[in-house]
Amino acid sequence: MMSFISGNAGLIGLLMFFAFFMLILLWVYLPGTKSKFAEHGQIPLREAEDE
Fold first, then answer.
1. Which of 18, 21, 23, 32 has the lowest tally of Cβ within 10 angstroms?
2. Tens digits of residue pLDDT in 16-42
3. Which pTM does this prediction carry?
4. Residue 25 placed within a domain
């Protein structure tokens, strides 16, 4: 088993990073996230609450 993993480490890593990238894209484009991103994008423009 270890020889298979070490022999195909490049391919396994590539597939893992590709799956991670696809999950991030899925999370970003899920319905309902646009309003969250718009709200979070306004954080730097808000008045300082502690002043």
1. 32
2. 999 999 999 999 899 888 888 889 999
3. 0.63
4. yes
